C-alpha cells in the first residue's frame, strides 16, 4: 500500500476536490483506492461531509471517518466543545494501516499542516507513518508565503513533500495568480505537479473522472501510484 497525505496551506484551498481528483485519477488507472478523513468538523450527524463529496466525484467506496464534530472549528477545539475525547495518534495511524489492502490510501487533513486533528497534527501522523505530504495551495495573493512556510516545516521535520497543487485555478487568472504559478516552485523548491480548475466540484461524476487525470503531471502521477 502507498499512502499519500493531502494538506493545505490554509482552509478552503481545495483539499477535498484535489483528494477526489487524485482518487479518480488512480481509479482510472485501475488502482484500488481508499480515503481516510480522520476528523470532520462543521457537519452534523447524518449530514454529508467531505467524504461524501469525494465518493460522489471519484467513485471511491472505501472511506473512513474517525470523528465528526458539529462546530466549524479546529478538530481539537471542536471535540472539547462537545465533550468528545480527542483523537489519538495511535488510533488514527492504526485506522490508516487497516486500509493496507488497497493500492493507494489518501489521507485528507483538516485546514493546514499544523492544525490539531486531536492530540496530534497531520505532520505528526505523516512522520509516524513515514508517508509523503502533498500540499494544496491557493492561486492568488498570499500563497507564496503560506506555501513556503508549509514546505519549510515539512523539510525541517524530515517529511517528504510530494509536490504542490493549486487547488482552484480560476477561469480568468489575475496577475498575481499567473505570477504565482511560476514563482511557487521557485520559492519553495518544490515542483508544481497539478492545477485543478475552479468549479469542478459541481461537475457530474463522469465528467469529473474523465478530466481529473489531465490536471496532474503525468510523470509525477506515475510515482504514487496514480497511473
Automatic annotation (TrEMBL):
Substrate binds at residue 41. The active site is at 37. The keyword Transcription regulation does not apply. ATP binds at residues 12-17, 50, 108-111, 167-168. Pfam families: AAA_26. Keywords: ATP-binding, Biotin biosynthesis, Cytoplasm, Ligase, Magnesium, Metal-binding, Nucleotide-binding. SUPFAM superfamilies: P-loop containing nucleoside triphosphate hydrolases. Pathway: Cofactor biosynthesis; biotin biosynthesis; biotin from 7,8-diaminononanoate: step 1/2. One of its GO terms (molecular function) is ATP binding. It catalyses: (7R,8S)-7,8-diammoniononanoate + CO2 + ATP = (4R,5S)-dethiobiotin + ADP + phosphate + 3 H(+). The keyword Cytoplasm applies. CDD domains: DTBS (cd03109). One of its GO terms (biological process) is biotin biosynthetic process. One of its GO terms (cellular component) is cytosol. Its cofactor is Mg(2+). It comes from the Bacteria. It is found in: Cytoplasm. Its EC number is 6.3.3.3. Homodimer. Belongs to the dethiobiotin synthetase family. Catalyzes a mechanistically unusual reaction, the ATP-dependent insertion of CO2 between the N7 and N8 nitrogen atoms of 7,8-diaminopelargonic acid (DAPA, also called 7,8-diammoniononanoate) to form a ureido ring. This is ATP-dependent dethiobiotin synthetase BioD. It comes from Nocardia uniformis. The gene is bioD.
Amino acid at each position: 500500500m502507498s499512502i499519500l497525505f493531502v494538506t493545505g496551506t490554509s482552509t478552503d484551498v481545495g483539499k477535498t476536490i484535489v483528494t477526489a481528483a487524485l482518487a479518480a485519477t488512480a481509479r482510472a488507472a485501475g488502482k484500488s483506492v481508499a480515503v481516510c478523513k480522520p476528523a470532520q468538523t462543521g457537519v452534523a450527524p447524518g449530514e454529508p461531509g467531505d467524504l461524501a463529496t469525494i465518493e460522489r466525484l471519484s467513485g471511491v467506496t472505501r472511506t473512513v471517518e474517525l470523528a465528526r464534530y458539529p462546530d466549524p472549528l479546529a478538530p481539537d477545539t471542536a471535540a472539547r466543545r462537545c465533550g468528545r475525547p480527542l483523537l489519538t495518534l495511535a488510533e488514527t495511524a492504526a485506522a490508516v494501516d487497516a486500509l493496507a489492502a488497497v493500492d493507494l490510501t489518501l489521507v485528507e487533513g483538516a485546514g493546514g499542516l499544523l492544525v490539531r486533528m486531536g492530540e496530534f497534527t497531520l505532520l505528526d501522523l505523516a512522520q509516524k507513518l513515514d508517508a509523503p505530504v502533498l500540499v494544496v495551495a491557493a492561486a492568488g495573493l498570499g500563497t507564496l508565503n503560506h506555501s513556503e512556510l508549509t514546505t519549510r516545516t515539512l523539510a525541517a521535520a524530515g517529511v517528504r513533500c510530494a509536490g504542490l497543487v493549486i487547488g482552484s485555478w480560476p477561469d480568468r487568472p489575475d496577475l498575481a495568480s499567473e505570477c504565482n504559478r511560476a514563482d511557487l516552485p521557485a520559492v519553495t523548491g518544490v515542483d508544481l505537479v497539478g492545477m485543478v480548475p475552479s468549479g469542478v466540484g459541481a461537475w457530474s461524476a463522469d465528467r469529473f473522472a474523465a478530466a481529473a487525470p489531465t490536471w496532474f503531471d503525468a510523470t509525477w502521477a506515475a510515482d504514487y501510484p496514480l497511473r
